[in-house]
Write a structure and sequence with these properties.
Layout (H helix, E strand, L loop, with lengths): L2 E8 L4 H12 L4 E7 L2 E6 L6 H9 L4 E4 L2
Antiparallel strand pairs: 1-3, 1-4, 2-3
C-alpha cells in the first residue's frame, strides 16, 4: 500500500528548481512523483522501501528545505 506525502519546499524559485527537486525525488526508491511546483511537491511512496524522512532528506541534500505537510 502506498502513502501520500505533501511537501512544502523552501528555496525554490524557478523551473530549474522544479527539475532538480523532481530528479531528486525520482532517485528515491519506492517514490512516485505526483506533482512538483515551486514551493511544493506531492508524492506517493512505498513505506516498506522509504520513509518521509528519507524523502525530505533527498530534497535537503540538494540545497532546499523540505518539510511534510501531513
Amino acid at each position: 500500500m502506498e502513502n501520500t506525502l505533501n511537501l512544502s519546499i523552501d528555496g525554490m524559485h524557478c523551473d530549474a528548481c522544479v527539475r532538480r527537486v523532481t530528479n531528486a525525488l525520482t532517485g528515491v526508491e519506492g517514490v512516485h512523483v505526483g506533482s512538483v511546483k515551486v514551493g511544493a511537491a506531492t508524492v506517493t511512496f512505498d513505506p516498506q522501501k522509504t520513509s518521509p524522512e528519507q524523502i525530505t532528506g533527498a530534497i535537503d541534500s540538494i540545497g532546499f528545505a523540505a518539510r511534510s505537510d501531513r
